[in-house]
Write a structure and sequence with these properties.
Length: about 120
């Protein structure tokens, strides 16, 4: 007979999932079944690139059909500052200006322009 479950004991469960996809319950059940836990809703914290793509207001695309999507669009510097304020608590920069530069680098990787010019020109 297995030992009795101790509710005060801390257990760490590592799970990998793809964002936006519902995982199979059969993969989750063996991990949390012995702990007497039920699957709960979790809070989704969007990444910087997800916030930039949302600011571009592009229609959603299927990642299975189109690979390596380059987003072409233009967002304002005010939207970059708003995204930087949302990401400030997760940034490793000392000041907000450093966080803005991080977000501009992400915008450069996504492939969009900021106020009509390349994000790297604004970083300089």
């Amino acid at each position: 007979m297995p030992p009795k479950f101790n509710p005060n004991e801390i257990k760490v469960v590592y799970l990998r999932c793809t964002g936006g996809k519902v995982g199979a319950a059969s993969a989750l059940a063996p991990k949390i079944g012995p702990l007497a836990l039920s699957p709960k809703k979790i809070e989704v914290v969007p990444s910087a690139s997800a916030l930039i793509i949302k600011a571009l207001k592009e229609p959603p695309r299927d990642r299975k059909k189109q690979k390596n999507i380059k987003h072409s669009g233009n967002i304002t510097f005010d939207e970059i500052v708003n995204i930087a304020r949302q990401m400030r608590h997760r940034s490793l920069a000392r000041e907000l200006s450093g966080t803005i530069k991080e977000i501009l680098g992400t915008a450069q990787f996504v492939g969009c322009n900021v106020d009509g010019c390349h994000p790297h020109d604004i970083i300089r």
